[in-house]
Design goal:
The chain has 10 helices and 21 strands. The protein has helices at residues 4-20, 78-90, 105-120, 150-165, 226-230, 243-256, 368-372, 427-435, 439-442, 485-490; strands spanning 30-35, 46-51, 60-66, 132-137, 168-175, 188-195, 208-212, 215-219, 259-268, 274-283, 287-298, 306-320, 325-338, 342-356, 374-387, 391-406, 409-425, 446-459, 464-475, 494-507, 510-522. The strands form 4 sheets. Strands 11-12-13-14-15-16-17-18-19-20-21 form an 11-stranded antiparallel β-sheet. A hairpin with a 3-residue loop joins strand 15 (374-387) and strand 16. It is extended. The relative contact order is 0.05.
Length: 523
Amino acid sequence: MYDSLNADKSVIYFRALLNAEGYYRDSIPYNASVDTVADQEGDQYRTTVNFDVYPGKLIRLDSIVFNISGDTLQSISQATKDTLQQVTNNAMGSTLLKKGAPFSKSLISNEIDRLTDVYRNNGYLQFSREEILAVWDTVGIALLRPTLDPIEQAQQLAELRKRRENPTADLEIRLRYNPDTSHLVRYYVGDVTVYPDLAADTADYIPEINYVNGIKVVSYHDLYKPHIAVENVYLSRGDLYSQRNYLRTLNKYNSIGSWRLVAIDQIPREGTDTVDFIVRLTPAEKYSINTNIEGSQNFGSNLFNGNFIGFNVGLQNRNFARSANLASTNFRFATEVLRKEFVRAQQVSFTNSIYFPRFIPKFGFVPQQWKDISKTLFTLNASYTARRDFFNLASITSSWGYEFNWKNKLLNIRIPNLEYARIKKGPELLELIINNRTYEYIFNSGLVVSSIANITVTGGKNRLANVARFNLESSGLLLGLLNSQTLYENLHRFVKLDAEFRQNYKIRRSAFAWRLFAGAGYQ
């Protein structure tokens, strides 16, 4: 049902949107036309409403002042105002407000949020965005001051004409006239207490209390080693409070996966500038097991035609060695039957990996900022594959590596990466090799002792997603210098580099994707 009141409301909403983006001299007329020709049902008429939106000129920022220590704040000491002003000035390099930028409400709101974070990262624990005011002037205070001097009147008229042609706004960021003084207290870190294995009921347990690096650890079930419980705490006694360190601590515990719930209570001491922290950690279930069965039927040549069935079982330990390490063990058995006549292939594999949420070992020369974003991974895999009349293959692989994750980048380094394969060739494979010598390089025994570096960079925005990956691997360069006949016969020595770029563009429910890959190697 058409109602002109709804059209008037739409104009109000349009104007609010334009004002929020910096357009304050808009004009939005509209007209409505009724189609008097009835539709098929014979009892309805269609109304077309046209809104003509003239946003006018965009108002831009001219002068920007951060007047935190204004004289109007009588209830705040001069020392507090000077400290706030100094903190503000030190963070001016990251301000979002620039001369010539649109006079946008969203831009100003984001700047207030930025300043709030700046203050919270500099000790002001209870500071909120409600303590900040943004005062603006789009007319020019000087133009409103009466004067009898004809020269000044001419200057005012010239300035007024200039503002009409290129409208600007003067902006001042200040504190409220009567702020809550308790929100302007600068806090320092006091006592930190960690409960690493908190459960719903602790009444029947006697807590064990330890102190590690000045942090109190209260354990009820002795599930974690005391130093493991505090290694992710970035709040040191006596330091200036920083919201960034509080969030780093919270996010670090949440990212590990050994704890189901993580909560950090911030408790300011009444009448002081000290805040205490209580870290409450509720452990997740230590063990989890998963099993699955897979099957398929292949239709192809006589070589690959058959029925496949596999069985997998996995065990996960979220607190391996009482150190919040994630250990995963998987066992897999698979077989392929050809036309129900005989077993064509069988495969047995065992995989074990341990994920350490820290840098191991604790080398002193590794910068702390790299340790904070690092993880350590150990993997071991053994498998045996028997394909009738084709080959019997036994292989074992193991690696020790590190992951560094920051912003949109993931760096993976494996030192060392060990791979050993031993193959017994069957008559069908030997026949394939005779007909095509390429198979000789695919199916062979050997040892790989390599170092691998892999970096992945993700990007894009809105509907576009990009992924770039670069991989470098070298094997046997150092071991090849050893005078060993066994290594000479089995060790593969090579260097290879490959790169990949993928891009995905979403189009409604579909997507356009393409991929570019290139690589080179030397053996």
